[in-house]
Amino acid sequence: MQIFRLALTFPLLAGLAAGCSQPNKAGADGATAPTTAAAADTAALAKKPGWWKETVVYQIYPRSFQDSNGDGEGDLRGIISRLDYLQRLGVGTVWLNPIYASPNDDSGYDISDYRRIQPAFGTMQDFDALLQGLHRRGIKLVMDLVVNHSSDEHEWFRQARSSRSSPYRDYYHWWPAERGKPTPRWSFFDVNSDAWRYDSLTNSYYLHYFSRKQPDLNWENPKLRQEIYRMMRFWLDKGIDGFRMDAFQFVAKDPRFPVLPPGYEKNIIRYYGNGPHLHDYIQEMNREVLSKYNVMTVAEGAGSGPTDAMLFVDPARKELNMAYHFEGMDLANGPDGYRLTDFKRIYTRWDSAFARTGWLSIYLANHDQPRMLSKFGDDRPAFRAASAKLLNTFILTMRGTPYCYNGDELGMSNIRFKRIEDYRDMETRNGYQRVKNRGGDLNAFLAQAKRTARDNGRTPFQWDASAQAGFSTGTPWLHVNPNYRAVNAAAQEADSASVLNHFRRATALRRAHPVLVHGQYRLLDAANPHIYAYTRTLGAARALVVLNFTAEPRTWALPAGLTPGGAPWLNNYPTFGPAATLALQPWQALVLPLR
Ligand code: NOJ
User: Fold this and answer.
1) Beta strands in 196-355 (DSSP E)
2) CA 50 to CA 74: how far, in whole Å?
3) Which atom of ligand 1 is nearest to the CA of 366?
């Protein structure tokens, strides 16, 4: 079950704070002030209001990015050793998945101390050095804020479960067993899909929408909310630039836990999302915390559609910055892939809903998804590079803030484990056990996991062709994709036509042309099942994007009135013959200036 992937993300990064406060001092990593045009651009941009519209976000999954001490797990020192790589990507913001103290039941999304760094990732000094090193390069840092739930090993929960009269009891949701069984609530990760867990210590059940080691926090308690606001200030005062707010649409609950209609679990966003007072809480958080800092927020999950999503990001409501929808993600999870016409319809519908106000994020993958290339492109060797470039072109030429998941700039692909033992993700392992307990079809489960399991997107970053892809000198916590000898950053550095260098060209293009950020979007040829074409218009500046989403050559006639105004701004093939009808190569992606 992957319904939580339907959420929405809003970064509220506005500002700088300590970010650019010491631009001329050498950082702990030895870097001096921004050294490239990209860094200078991003540093200047960071001071502009609404800079988060113009940034490109690069998501780092820290456990898999770079291991610096040979324990097989990525860490902060590892990221620090790759700061120059990040700078050369031309991205303006890094979003780090959770690096806080955690027993790692859900890979860091089960936090046992919100103010400590998980020892496997390093120390607070390492964190400070990382933040400084990013800021020196003009790159912002957004952290994950995981406050729908904590770990069951958090001190709050230890105290809460110790006695019904604990001052922390109301930090969580409890159902006293003398009232009988709680009204059913479905859980995303639980082996029995049961979100209530009986705890004999106080003869009560506690609520956990995710795993039983992730008890839900009680946002209805103002003391809990104040604790969270203090914790947010702790990080913001360090100078971070915003938060990606995990599962945030679920935080508000009706503590009476009314009976839900049969089948509610098939529409979990409707029943768990946008609970009573959700927007009151976000407005309170904005008033008391976010408005005091010039930072960005992205909440994961914003309800059932654009109308709900707008409530989170309409600037007049003073809540968050950026909506993050899951409709595009949920399109291609079945065995038959997806129809391009559906893909176009979804992105166009969301764009129209946000055409006048509000702002969207654009992404095709993250740590909860399989690899973008395997899901939306074509990872067969003949088409890998072209289709990865096309997908990156799409992300970087749409209206909305682009999010690139680490490794997608190289065209990394799904690992497709054959055996359950190779998976590390509790979602997949518990799901397997659930099917097994019910006597279900385990082979069908494994076949589906090859397409959709989260570990497909979590394998170690492929830096070079040496052992373990240069990720670690030890044994990686998750297998390296065996294709690393062909697909790695070092090989792509050396090849100007690589996916990596195309990605760099695309980020530079977006920085150079405001029309690609702010320009109005218009879909062309909506019914074409093979080609996705759209224009972007900002005053006199106009661009045309033409994407052949198939492995066959295609032709596409330019609509009347559209005349290319020169050589392509971006092209993932070496050739281009201007003509009234474009002859497109398999997975060709063109960005053309228009007269
Ligand atoms: C969404 C996160 O992205 C995912 O990785 C996590 O498992 C759940 N929320 C629970 O925190």
Assistant:
1) 196-199, 204-207, 242-245, 296-299
2) 32
3) 3
Tens digit of each residue's pLDDT (9 = 90 or more) over 180-238 = 999 999 999 999 999 999 999 999 999 999 999 999 999 999 999 999 999 999 999 99
Span 48-52, mean pLDDT?
81
pLDDT band of residue 575 (cuts 50, 70, 90) is: confident
Measured in residues, the chain has a length of 595
Atom of ligand 1 nearest to the CA of 247: 9
- Dist. CA 304–CA 388, nearest whole Å: 29
pTM greater than the 0.85 cutoff: yes
User: Hunting for tokens 């103290």 — which residue is that?
Assistant: 101
Q: Reading across the β-sheet that carries 174-176, which strands appear in turn?
A: 174-176, 204-207, 196-199
Q: How many helices (H) and strands (E) does the chain have?
A: 18, 20
Q: Is the confidence at residue 476, as pLDDT, over 50?
A: yes
Give the number of other CB atoms < 10 A from CB of residue 168. 20
Active site residue 54: no
* Residue 512 scores a pLDDT above 60: yes
Q: Are 443 and 423 in contact (CB under 8 A)?
A: no
Residue reference for tokens 């795993």: 211
Give Cβ neighbours of residue 289 (< 8 Å, ≥ 6 apart): 229, 232, 233, 236
Structure tokens at 56: 């490109």
Question: Ligand 1 pocket by C-beta < 6 Å: which residues?
Answer: 4, 106, 109, 146, 210, 246-247, 300, 367-368
